[in-house]
Design goal:
alpha/beta; binds 1-O-pyrophosphono-5-O-phosphono-alpha-D-ribofuranose; binds uracil
Length: about 290
């Protein structure tokens, strides 16, 4: 193991063991190989384990990846120590589709399809903790044991743009029932204004996935979570496609029990509360209203 200092992080390097067949795709924060690791990678020209620990972090939270030749490993899912509670789903398919989604030239139909597909990919990651119940299955040959979702989650899109994420998740979980929360942002104050609320009965005993492609100031999401908790929801997860750090911080501060899954964590909000680089107005692009 060698070590070096880079940008305030302690880096440790070691050549991967023989039995490390698969590159471990865990690269957090940087999204690229730390510069300080490059000389070792060139020297060894093999797979290399890189750990980058910021002061006070355990090894589990550091950067870990293997570099094979010119091929840098990227994570499929990263958590962001700077923004607790937020998981960025960074699968290559997600990144590919996000670039298409952001493109101002993407037409409405393709935009709708991409939102739906991205919701499916996000849901795959966000449903990892869903409880299972044992079942007996009879195959054509014999009886065996299997599992099913103990209780299908309830999906709650925030109108309008959250609607675009529903079908993509129901493609995975056809039994999921759907509630609706109508919210719009006041143009001047950016504060959310609620105009509709209806959720299925029994919400207290189900996982609830709150859906909205955009987490900007966080006002809409935080307001929606408060309303859902008031109606009995206890296990909530928020799924979005683009999050601003401001929105992540607000939602986590107001509802630290609600994990956030996003396809992208963007730079900042502009003076009008739009996410930069973002994708513009998600509702307008989904429904062709501009
Ligand atoms: C957008 C978006 C979110 C909200 C995010 O909806 O779909 O609901 O803004 O912003 P926030 O985090 O600052 O609250 P909008 O208010 O434009 O309504 P629409 O979907 O009906 O267009
Ligand atoms: N709502 C959107 O649709 N886009 C943004 O960038 C911010 C809020």
């Amino acid at each position: 193991m060698g070590s070096a200092e880079a940008g305030g992080s302690a880096l440790g390097f070691g050549v991967a063991g023989e039995d490390d067949r698969q590159a471990r795709r865990v690269l957090r924060e940087l999204g690229r190989m730390p510069a300080a690791a490059a000389p070792l990678v060139q020297e060894v020209r093999e797979r290399v384990l890189v750990l980058a620990l910021t002061p006070g972090e355990t090894e589990d939270h550091g950067l870990i990846f293997f570099h094979a030749g010119e091929d840098t490993s990227f994570s499929t899912m990263t958590t962001t120590p700077a923004l607790p509670g937020c998981t960025v789903v960074a699968h290559p398919l997600v990144r590919h589709k996000m670039a298409l989604l952001r493109d101002r030239a993407t037409p409405t139909k393709l935009f709708q399809e991409l939102v739906s597909e991205l919701a499916t990919l996000l849901a795959y990651e966000a449903t990892q903790q869903l409880p299972l119940a044992p079942i007996t299955v009879t195959t054509p040959l014999e009886t065996t044991r299997g599992e099913r979702l103990a209780t299908p989650p309830i999906l709650v899109p925030i109108l309008r743009a959250g609607l675009g994420m529903v079908d993509g998740i129901r493609a995975l979980i056809p039994d999921a029932r759907v509630g609706h929360i109508g919210l719009y942002r006041d143009h001047d104050s950016l504060a959310p204004v609620e105009y509709y609320f209806k959720v299925p009965p029994g919400i207290a005993s189900h996982d609830v996935f709150l859906l909205d492609p955009m987490l900007a100031t966080g006002g809409s999401a935080a307001n929606a979570v408060t309303a859902l908790k008031r109606s009995g929801a206890t296990r909530l997860t928020f799924l979005c496609l683009v999050a601003a750090p401001e929105g992540v911080r607000r939602l986590h501060a107001e509802h630290p029990d609600v994990p956030i899954f996003t396809a992208a964590l963007d730079r900042e909000l502009n003076a009008h509360g739009y996410i930069l680089p973002g994708l513009g107005d998600a509702g307008d692009r989904l429904f062709g209203t501009k």
